[in-house]
Specification:
Structural class of chain B: mainly beta
Strand content of chain B: over 45%
Number of strands of chain A: 11
Largest interface: A-B, 28 and 25 residues
Order of helices and strands of chain B: EEEEEEEEEEEE
Radius of gyration of chain B: 14 Å
Number of strands of chain B: 12
Oligomer: heterodimer
Structural class of chain A: mainly beta
Number of helices of chain A: 0
Distance between the termini of chain B: 41 Å
Shape of chain B: globular
Order of helices and strands of chain A: EEEEEEEEEEE
Largest sheet of chain A: 7 strands, mixed
Chain lengths: ~120, ~110
């Protein structure tokens, strides 16, 4: 979707190194999310943001941190990458809370491999 | 808490066959329900949604009806095509409980053979 881009699309990194993934949106949506997708687990929420500087943890937040200093950018940082963090990471955005009937728009994903 | 359970795949069908992918949910409040589709190498796309009981969501020949009495939101299509081959995810958001996020099922892979 042209309104949301993730970078990089692919990355290989070494165990123990910090890694930052970027999600950029041009839709001015309030809500932004980071999920990871793994075989057998579907999509699991890592962190989300409900406004600039407002973030909260998801179900698999250990080892990850996020920052949102402006509406359009939501950064996910792996503080010290481990092999268990090898995954496909998806960013999503939503104009209003999904509980009000809105869905997400997803980015194309970042495939991260930790060796 | 909230949870979504989907039938395990892969589901393999011949072209023009009837499709059903089962989805049941557990929610403490009154959820909105969604189906997403993921084509190979891409992100998820919203396929259809329903926000209240007995609502039917539909798109591209796919349908799903929000059944509160059976806590289900099964996806159906009358005649599948090879181009429907993808992974399908059922999801919910509960406006009374953590309404800021979607909870996803594990996904069901559909393979349609010519």
């Amino acid at each position: 979707d042209a309104g949301i881009t993730q970078s990089p699309r692919h990355k290989v990194t070494e165990t123990g190194t910090p890694v930052t993934l970027r999600c950029h949106q041009t839709e001015n949506h309030r809500y932004m999310y980071w999920y990871r997708q793994d075989p057998g687990h579907g999509l699991r929420l890592i962190h989300y943001s409900y406004g600039v500087k407002d973030t909260d943890k998801g179900e698999v937040s250990d080892g990850y941190s996020v920052s949102r200093s402006k509406t359009e950018d939501f950064l996910l940082t792996l503080e010290s990458a481990t092999s268990s963090q090898t995954s496909v990471y998806f960013c999503a955005i939503s104009e209003i809370a999904p509980g009000q009937g809105a869905g997400y728009t997803f980015g194309s994903g970042t495939r991260l491999t930790v060796v | 808490g909230n949870s979504v359970t989907q039938m395990e795949g892969p589901v393999t069908l011949s072209e023009e066959a009837f499709l059903t992918i089962n989805c049941t949910y557990t929610a403490t409040g009154y959820p909105s329900l969604f189906w997403y589709v993921q084509y190979p190498g891409e992100g998820l796309q919203l396929l259809l949604k329903a926000t209240k009981a007995d609502d039917k969501g539909s798109n591209k020949g796919f349908e799903a009806t929000y059944r509160k009495e059976t806590t289900s939101f099964h996806l159906e299509k009358g005649s599948v095509q090879v181009s429907d081959s993808a992974v399908y995810f059922c999801a919910l958001s509960d406006r009374n409980n953590a309404g800021n996020m979607l909870t996803f099922g594990g996904g069901t892979r559909l393979m349609v053979k010519p």
